[in-house]
Structures
1.
Amino acid sequence: MQCANHTDAAAAAYCSNCGKALCSDCISPDKSPVLCAECGQERETRQASAPPPIPPPVNPSPVRGIAAPTLPATSGYAYCPPGVSLLLGFIPGVGSICNGDYFKAFLQVLVFGSLVSLSSSSETGDLGPVFGILTAAVYLYMPFDAYHVAKKRTLALQGITVITPLEKMKFPELWAGSLSILVGGIFLVNQFVPGTLRFVLRGWPLILIGIGVYNLTRHFRPQLS
């Protein structure tokens, strides 16, 4: 195959971008990858117009009396500031969407909608007010969570790592998955067997008994060992 630029010369290589045949005179041995003149010029133009890389954040100086260095401005921050996340958090799921937590937003909308439905359902019986209180608690939790997540990410840009109050509450994935399957199964069975949900809710004191047994077991376990 002949060179695309010099038809009387045999091709020695090919442009790694467009595949054009190039002879030995069109190739720079000290440049990698192999590019034709047009692709090489396009690459240089693209590199010249690219923004400079953002320097890493500088940790504040731990020495007392020495001012901390000014942190570089970070462009392109994809999330909302804490105040905006707090305000949008009063709309179910929107605060988490603002923070980029789309799966958490989906769960918040699902849980909030389920509690609203249960608080006004006749299946819950006398427990309707309890679900109303839980609905209000979840509604107030969402902006609180959105604010803390946004605040943590803002501090992370300054090199400061914090743990939010909700992160201190460890909830294993096994328990979360098992609880989701259990609640979803109860709702599914209730669609085909009316009254299942009311029957299950009558046993809510078993939750208190289970919590008591769990704490007593943790208390006496060190003594038995």
Note: DSSP finds eight helices and two strands in the chain.
2.
Amino acid sequence: MPGRGRAIDLAHTDIVALHLVERFRLFFIIALGETVLTMGNAFTHEPFEPERLLALSIGFTGTVALWWCYFHRAESLGVELAEHDDEAGAVGWLGTWTLTLMVLGLVAIAVGDELAIAHPRDEATLGFTVLTFSGPAVFLLALAVFGAATAPLALIAGIAASAAVLVAVALADTAG
């Protein structure tokens, strides 16, 4: 039963940190691949329109940007922490939760992209707006929380970036 038995001290648990980082990398690649497949399916299931091609291009560019953010920043931080931190279990725990939030943000982005590609001329609903903007905000916030493990200013930058995305949502909602 969950919650029963002895507690595990994650801060002092021995793990093979580089193996865990590799697993995170593979999981994130799978999530990115699903995002690209979702966009491709949305594009091919409707007749060709230039607006749909533009939406596909924007969605794909955003996915490449997320790939770059993860592999340029988060993964290198994970490798550095895994190789040099004495508390690899705590790093693994933090990495697990932040990766989960990143993938949650990626799912929201994928759904927003799918809706934009399939129906580019439809009126933007509140649900579409929330999915489209909260996905990047959650992704950036999770990236910042993970980055704060080595660079405390990364958390402030991530919170500022997430807040900027949410302000854009508020402005888009009031303008529409």
Note: The CA atoms of residues 24 and 99 lie 7 Å apart.
